[in-house]
Structure prediction request, 322 residues.
Amino acid sequence: MAPDPHRGAAAGTPLTLLYFGDTQNKNVSLGTRVLREAMRQAPDARLALFAGDLVSGGDGEDDTEWGEWFEAGGALPTSMVVAPAAGNHEYFEEFEDTPRERRVLGPHWPLQFALPGNGVAGAGSTTYWFDYQDVRVVVLDGTSALDLGTAQAQAGWLDVVLAASPARWNIVVVHQPFHSPRAARDNVLLRKHLLPVIRRRHVDLVLQGHDHVYARRSGEDGGDTPVFVVSVAGPKQYRLSTGAHTRMAPVGEDTQLFQVLRVDGPNLRYEARTATGHLYDAFELVREGAATRRVELAEGRIAPRTCGRAKTLKGRADRCWE
Prediction:
């Protein structure tokens, strides 16, 4: 079920929504437990946001992997509105290893998701926005911005969409993080073109994936918002960079997570939970006039998790699970 541009009950009605980082690998065997636990923790959820790399793709496995993604979701895709961001694994390399090599959106995407069609020219299949009660959700395409030259166009479009927002809360979803918590990754074009818009238009939450760890940080100016979150729902797990340990908190490795967001008037409560339902992170955003205050909710959180092995079974030291 995909989002219409305007959806949901009347503004002011409480809303529960879910957010998932990359599912990508082993959706049926290991991803299912995350999606089911999310629905168990939030049976009233009406909206699910996916931050890209729903499948791994490639090597002729796309049909099988998309089939597994829908199987793993069970009742979720048919019982609530699903809003996905495209990740780099939703693209494939056409003419790979030749001078004509380029990224092309996979053919499954437009056939499986009937999205609003209100995105930016050049990335119309993968950028869109919609309002759901008191929330405006804007979905960006980080792969197109970084690899296909649409970062500046997406920034202009994002500015217009956010400037016209009547919603109390504004959430941006994008696959690649603005501030990467994984070593040797730096998405400069996102920060150059899109981050100034995020700040100027007072976005509340930026929900991201791609790096297969957990990390949270706020703006560089020390303000409480926007809050930037990177999360991972699937079992493929990387390692945090040294910088992530010093500039982000809380952080986590080797942990499948899902997020529950509860919006009720001037309050937005965020929870990150493990596949077995344990509380990993929580905070609340409180709107006070034109200002927003972030309140940390530490009670009940489990201890931060780190990778307990030096390398994967295949010998890779940059991952915790291959």
